[in-house]
Write a structure and sequence with these properties.
Length: about 210
């Protein structure tokens, strides 16, 4: 039986889609084609901790009530460790560990992420399910990337990530605009609460 938390998320997204259907909130959100990676990813600058600010609810999202963070480390030049952590709806620490293989040597921005025992994840040589579609540079040349937008090729999953646990509403709106430019429907994204930041589960398209 679905938890109250999962049902609340589903109800929130359904309510948003009733106002802003899948036809999109802007022309950009109806962009055709598969999600494209950035032209070239500097992998070392992508490693480290990323705080989830909003996401299309999925298997792992429904286990997390707040403070969802992903930590990436380098195993070898083509393999990255994935350590996801969050606080569950019951207030307990939750997490899952997996790995990601780079399947696009040209851009290094398309990966196949797999988690042991989790359905709908896979570990193949040529099919990505994690496409880094947009990144923002840090404040100085060579600094770690500051923000990122990630999804699968069909945009069935999507994540808005930041290096900081808490970001401003102005920054969130900038990230929403970038998400829509990449062809996502921002109404499918739900805010990911963080300690000291937002505490709501508002669909991204309704943030003001």
């Amino acid at each position: 039986m679905p938890s109250r938390f999962a049902l609340r998320l589903a109800t929130t997204v359904a309510a948003a889609l009733a106002v802003f259907p899948l036809s999109g909130v802007s022309a950009a959100s109806a962009a055709p084609g598969t999600l494209q990676p950035v032209r070239s990813l500097d992998v070392p600058r992508y490693l480290g901790a990323w705080w989830q600010q909003a996401a299309i609810p999925g298997f792992y999202s429904l286990r997390c009530a707040r403070d969802t963070v992903a930590r990436y480390g380098l195993i070898d030049p083509m393999t990255v460790s994935v350590n996801n952590r969050c606080i569950s709806p019951t207030g307990q620490r939750d997490g899952i560990v997996g790995k990601a293989k780079v399947v696009d040597p040209k851009t290094k921005a398309q990966l196949a992420v797999s988690f042991p025992g989790v359905p709908y994840t896979f570990d193949t040589k040529d099919r990505p399910n994690y496409v880094i579609a947009w990144v923002a540079n840090g404040d100085r040349p060579g600094d770690p990337y500051k923000y990122a937008i990630v999804g699968d090729p069909d945009r069935l999953s999507g994540f808005i990530l930041a290096r900081s646990r808490v970001i401003s509403t102005r920054t969130l709106l900038m990230l929403r605009a970038q998400t829509e430019r990449l062809g996502f429907n921002s109404c499918l994204f739900v805010i990911s609460p963080t300690t000291g930041g937002r505490s709501d589960y508002t669909p991204l398209c309704l943030v003001r």
